[in-house]
Amino acid sequence: MAAAEAPEVLQQCGCKGIRTCLICEGQRCGDPPWQLSPQKTHHFLYCSDSGWAVGAEDSDFEGWAFPFPGVTLIEDFVTREEEAEMVRLMDRDPWKLSQSGRRKQDYGPRVNFRKQKLKMAGFCGLPSFSREVVRRMGLYPGLEGFQPVEQCNLDYCPERGSAIDPHLDDAWLWGERLVSLNLLSPTVVSMHREAPGSLLLCAAPSAEALGDSVIAPSRSVPCQEVEVAIPVPCRSLLVLAGAARHQWTHAIHRRHIEARRVCATFRELSAEFGPGGAQQDLGRELLQMALSFQGRPV
């Protein structure tokens, strides 16, 4: 399908500061900053069946694991036909250059997170093709009452060296659940935790032992040396909440973009903008506009 083909490589990039992509790296001398970032020592793989992070095979922690709460993965959330149509409609509108080799489309208010200010100018709702996606989200456990007020589409391409650095999403405006729909190709979301201290490990649970009491921890590993990989299949929905939302940063490494990938991320309002919150009136106005589904990228 035409929408799934890798787009023509752009001759410009949106990188700023230390962030780079393959386009601007080809114009610079010396090692790009992304090569100098420290690599995590110990790799774990998230298991959606158990909800645990399990030590990678042939590693020092093979057979060991720790609970990794706050992740929900819903596979085959949309069909191949729905996926193709969504990307086709996205590609009708312009994509803006973004950092680290990405392109983006924003459907939401303009926000200055540092000053905690926002403007509604230009925002006229989520796109019409997201109406059914949002309705379907509410049918799944853990997404009851999910009402997104912002949608950000990101376009990743291996020819541009697309990636996104480890980060925590804002918690002043955005609420508890971050929901991302992964389209066109599978990827891996890499989780990191920079807090001091250690993670307590248990023997990796078997399917038969999942209902039993937690085994006493027998080993530990420094938090800052751990990376947890969450495999995200094509057409699946990934939800981050709780510890996975607030305590672990999330990233996508360049090496995990092997073909064009489009991600639609949906964010809900924080309690401050909800009923009874200090800015509930503004929140009500934002939500009413978002769920009109009349939007174009701002």
Automatic annotation (TrEMBL):
Taxonomic superkingdom: Eukaryota
Gene Ontology biological-process entries: actomyosin structure organization; cleavage furrow ingression; demethylation; positive regulation of gene expression, epigenetic
Cofactors: Fe(2+)
Gene3D superfamilies: Alpha-ketoglutarate-dependent dioxygenase AlkB-like (2.60.120.590)
Any one Gene Ontology molecular-function term assigned to this protein's record: actin binding
A GO cellular component entry from the record: contractile ring
N-terminal signal peptide: none
InterPro entries referenced in this protein's UniProt entry, alphabetically: AlkB-like_sf, ALKBH4
Protein name: AlkB homolog 4, lysine demethylase
Species, as recorded: Urocitellus parryii (Arctic ground squirrel)
Lineage of the species this protein comes from: Eukaryota, Metazoa, Chordata, Craniata, Vertebrata
Gene that encodes the chain: ALKBH4
